[in-house]
Amino acid sequence: MKKIFLMACIYFLLGYVIPTFSQGWEWVNPLPQGNTLHAVEFFAARSAVAVGDAATVMRTMDGGETWDIAYKVTGLSRSLRGLSFQGEKGIAVGDTGTVITTNDSGLTWQKHESGTDRDLLSVFMLDDSLAVAVGDRGIILRSTDCGVTWQLQEIEVGITEDLTAVTFVDSFGVAVGNWGSILLSYDTGVTWLRQVYPGLPWFRDVCFLNEDYGFILALGGAVFVTTDGGQSWSLHMLDTEISLFAIDFYEDGKGMIAGGSGELFMTEDSGKTWIKVPSGVESTLRGLDVENDGTGIAVGGGGGITTKSHDAENWTPGSQGLTLSLLDLAFINADTGIAVSSSNLVYTFDGGITWAPLADTVICCLDAIDFADKNHGTVSGSFRLILRTDDSGKTWRKQETPLRFNYPFLDVFHVTPNTAFVVGESGIILATTDGGETWVEQDSGIEPGGWPLNAIFFTDAMHGIAVSGGGDILRTTDGGQAWTFIATNVGEPLTDVYFIDSDTGVIVGDDGLVLRTTDGGVSWVEVNKGQNTLNSVDFHNENTGFAVGQRGTILHTDDGGLSWSPEPTNTTEWLFKVVVKDANNIFALGRRGVILKRREGVVSVREITEEAASVTESFLLLQNYPNPFNPETRIRYRLTQPAFVQLKIFNLTGQEVRTLESEQKSAGDHSILWDGRDNGLRPVSSGVYIYTITGTTERGQRLEMSRKLVLVR
Q1: Which CATH number fits domain 241-319: 1.10.150, 3.40.190, 2.40.10, 1.20.1050?
Q2: Amino acid 85: pLDDT
Q3: What DSSP string runs through 144-197?
């Protein structure tokens, strides 16, 4: 087998991480990633880290224009909710007592024991050693060794309410939380005095300009202000009913507040008045940090990011892509795929690299899509909706059904271009044999008002299986004229069904349930049980298949569905559909526009040791910008010592496309443009490419790192 040169940068060691070239799942939409981000903080000029769900750790070196998302801590999957830096040292905290620390500006992270299984929601570093973290049920932890060990702190009066934020000005600290909880400390967090604000508001963030003047944010647009160090508070309401989540002040009394629905507010008079400013995003903004020169980053739901450079007046979206929940997908050829969301059809014309909704159109409540061939397809949805296309999805027409009630149709399956079935609420089954000109209701045997039929699959014109939310399995051997119940002991809702051949099929459902048949659906055997609901299943061949579901769950089988193993996905969003286009193009779709893609040769994450991680201290290869790009993109890297450097572009088969640099370079920041051409100066086609930096420092240290970029013609 031909050895791919890029594989040399994969390291299998312990404790830290860097980007590598490997097999796995990558983000396609939104970009740079789609997990909710809870906190962001600058550690140097224009350089920041953001953390969020599924243990997401992101890093930017250009004020948020581009992000490296390839940071991961071994064995960590919980949400990270709080973040604080002092110089190069940083601490992030999260669910079930999670604590991770960095000593190199977020390049590498280590996990530590906090001594609690309660969720930690906020952390503040008073200096490069001393830190305080707060969280669920009033827990307060204190560390004097930069987060390596933690001690539980006592409160004068016991507290059971969640503490959501903590801040310090020198030795004076304030922690706030639910039900009006305010705690004050005068000794760097060793002891705490409790207050309760009348009306019991739910506080979300706290910020003090000095020991006297401070602000607390709450749900419903409320801002509480103190001028006496927290002894008394006055209520100010902003011009919004949206909840407020993050506040930060910078030079000369300027400050920002971030909240729900992408709302941002600005003050230039130390918080006496606040003016709403456009953020460019619609997602809830949960984290905010602004440098003294005005450079700012706000982060939030669905990976939403908005940024402001120091010399700009406006905030600019730093994330891109769809935010519609995607429920189903059908590819009609190598390049063209159509997905359905609750409010539109979403198209790709480049094999899944980029996606866009049907222009100037809103189609309500879509649920499923299926194509018989490249031309003929059907979409089903709520309110008896059935749409038909005969021109590869260029145009769609609505079809009438015989039903009087607005039942939602949850799945559709084409046997031939003219013969199709839809299933839905109350056990509804409709069939057409004339391309949808007429639809005929079939008797499923489910009583009106009974369980919905969630999925249907036919192995040929006569034999089909439908599954219900009540655990029912229905089978037909005469093209749907009659349906019979298959006796099973299943009590779990069933969500999807797929047949590998006429005999071998798989059904998935709640609690990780997988059923398998080898006799055409006459009998079924349970082969898997887990915790998270599975929503969809698909196979590439007789052996290889995938199932996806709740909280980012993806299962993989290589033995025709007999056994299933989980795959890491780096998301906790619900996944609704998996589609196997071919061996190298497997898509998972889900809530908030999540599109993941699995194939050989993607940029992924592997663990490395401290010894290997020390290599990254000598150089840093940054993400290209823009990405995706057309016609050119800029690649940047940083050297901490002189080195002979080669910077090359490769395709996914490992073939060299272009050598951009091959020369001695001085220490410092460097950048170069790639114009999308090969070494013969011929334009290359759209697709995914890998850019790699290799070299040797004057001290003989070997440099090597790779990243992915996407060209869209």
Answers
A1: 2.40.10
A2: 98
A3: SSTTSS-EEPEESS---SPEEEEEEETTEEEEEESTTEEEEESSTTSEEEEEE-
* Range 641-648 average pLDDT: 90
Cα–Cα distance for residue pair 147/141, rounded to 1 Å: 10
Give Cα separations from 442 to 133, 387, 416, 446 (angstroms): 60, 20, 18, 11
Sign of the alpha-carbon torsion through 695, 632, 587, 18: positive
Identify the burial level of 316 via C-beta atoms within 10 angstroms of its C-beta, where 0-12 means exposed, 13-18 middle and 19 or more buried.
Answer: middle
Kindly list the domain boundaries of the chain, sorted by start residue: 241-319, 322-485, 491-496+507-593, 622-711
Query: pTM for this structure?
Result: 0.80
Q: Residue 12 pLDDT > 80, yes or no?
A: no
Looking from the CA of 143 toward its CB, the CA atoms found within 13 Å total 27
How far is 231 from 214, CA to CA, in rounded Å? 11
What pLDDT does residue 388 have?
Answer: 96
How far is residue 332's CA from residue 375's CA, in Å, rounded to a whole number? 8
Which pLDDT score, from 0 to 100, does residue 618 have? 55
Same fold, 241-319 and 322-485: no
C-alpha to C-alpha distance for 313 and 308, rounded to whole angstroms = 8
- The predicted model gives 153-173 an average pLDDT of 87
Mean pLDDT of 342-361: 85
Pick the CATH number of 322-485 from 3.20.20.80, 3.40.30.10, 3.40.720.10, 2.130.10.10: 2.130.10.10
Q: Which is it for strands 619-621 and 110-112: parallel, antiparallel or unpaired? A: unpaired
Q: Which of 209, 237, 240, 205 is nearest to 38 (CA)?
A: 205
Higher-pLDDT residue of 687, 142: 142
For residue 3, pLDDT over 80 is answered with no
Q: What is the overall mean pLDDT for the chain?
A: 88
Mean pLDDT of 306-332: 91
pLDDT surpassing 60 at residue 606: no
Euclidean distance between CA atoms 256 and 267, whole angstroms: 6
- pLDDT band at residue 362 using 50, 70 and 90 as cut-offs: low
Question: Which residues, at least 6 apart from 140, have a Cβ–Cβ distance to it below 8 Å?
Answer: 132, 133, 134, 152, 153, 155, 163, 166, 175, 183, 189, 192
CB 515 within 8 A of CB 499: no
| Peptide bond preceding 568 in cis form (omega within 30 of 0) | no
Residue 156 has pLDDT above 70, yes or no: no
Strand partners, 247: 257
For CA atoms 534, 536, 542, 544, the dihedral sign is: negative
Place of tokens 């007789």: 542
- Mapping DSSP onto H, E and C, the string for 389-416 reads ECCCCCCCEECCCCCCCCCCEEEEEECC
Residues 6+ apart with CB under 8 A from 394: none
Whether residue 598 is predicted with pLDDT greater than 90 in this model: the reply is no
Higher pLDDT, 70 or 444: 444
Give the tokens for residue 427.
């056990």
Report yes or no: 658 and 678 within 8 Å, Cβ to Cβ: yes
Q: Given this model, what pLDDT does residue 66 score? A: 86
Helices (H), 614-679: none
Peptide bond into 683 cis (omega under 30): no
Q: Is the pLDDT of residue 619 over 80?
A: no
pLDDT of res. 70: 64
CA gap 167, 431 in Å, rounded? 63
Phi, psi of 32, rounded to the nearest 5 degrees? -75, -20
Round to whole Å and give the CA distance between 49 and 109.
12
- End-to-end CA separation in angstroms for the chain: 32
CATH number listed for the domain at residues 622-711: 2.60.40.4070
**Spatial contact of 255 and 271, defined as CB atoms under 8 Å apart:** yes
